[in-house]
Amino acid sequence: MKIWIVGGMLFLLAQNVMAAETAKVHYPEIERVEDAIKIIKTFTTIPETGIPPTLLRNACGIAIFPDAFRVGFILGGNYGRGVLSIRNRRNQWTNPVFITMAGGSIGWQIGAQSADIILVFKTRKSIDEITAGKYTLGADASVAIGPVGRQAAADTDTRFQAEIYSYSRTRGLFAGVSIQGAAIDIDYDAIVGFYHNSKIGARYIFNTPNITAPPVAAEFRKTLSDQTQ
């Protein structure tokens, strides 16, 4: 009898270990989406110091880089892993595509900082170029420091003429940030880890609303929809 009990306990332990290992394999991608959701929910929390609602309502795409790292000492640089979503033909936000950002700028600067970086895309042109290959902010499209708050939007750029607006978020507040020369790439390894499919890419994800994905993807879409209406 004791042998059966011990055997059963070992079997349950083995199952728990396997489940834990499986969770570890896919945890980074799920965590990245969960972090992006938290950032999205702050878009309209403080309208006076947030991304202008008008810009969000007319956005074609949004890229979010949680906890991106920026460093500076004579030469500045930044690196982040993020997610990108676009509005499809039905005006619905798509499941996340995983991306990376890396680049630098030249200037006299000292210090290091970790911050959330958000890019708001006004047109599909830039997004199409990102899915086609490496894309450089500032070289392949105009990138402007994003205006903050409703009044700032009206005073600074009422028609939002730039293709991309860039923001950083620290301590819950948004601020426009300059990101020139940073390259954006599709993170194919993360796509495989999240969707469990090595044969799909960014375009497939954008064009396939019913793609099989972890439950957090649906929460991601809903949160974007709720915060950009």
Chain-wise SSE layout:
Blueprint: H1 2-40, H2 53-57, E1 61-86, E2 97-121, H3 124-132, E3 135-136, E4 143-145, H4 150-156, E5 164-170, E6 173-176, E7 183-186, H5 188-195, H6 202-207, H7 216-227
Parallel strand pairs: 4-5
Antiparallel strand pairs: 1-2, 2-5, 2-7, 3-7, 5-6
**What characteristic shape results from the CA principal axes?**
globular
Give the H and E element order: HHEEHEEHEEEHHH
Enumerate the spans where pLDDT stays under 50 for 5 or more consecutive residues. Answer: 1-14, 17-26, 106-110, 153-158
Mean pLDDT: 78
- Tally of separate helices: 7
The count of strands amounts to 7
- Intertermini distance: 62 Å
Largest sheet: 7 strands, mixed
**Structural class assignment:** alpha+beta
| Strand content bin | 25-35%
Describe this structure in words.
This protein is of the alpha+beta class. It has one domain. It has helices at residues 2-40, 53-57, 124-132, 150-156, 188-195, 202-207, 216-227; strands at residues 61-86, 97-121, 135-136, 143-145, 164-170, 173-176, 183-186. Strands 1, 2, 3, 4, 5, 6 and 7 form a 7-stranded mixed β-sheet that branches. Helix 1 packs parallel to helix 7. The longest helix is centred in the first third of the chain and has 39 residues, at 2-40. The protein is globular and about 40 Å long. Mean pLDDT is 78; it is low at 1-14, 17-26, 106-110 and 153-158.
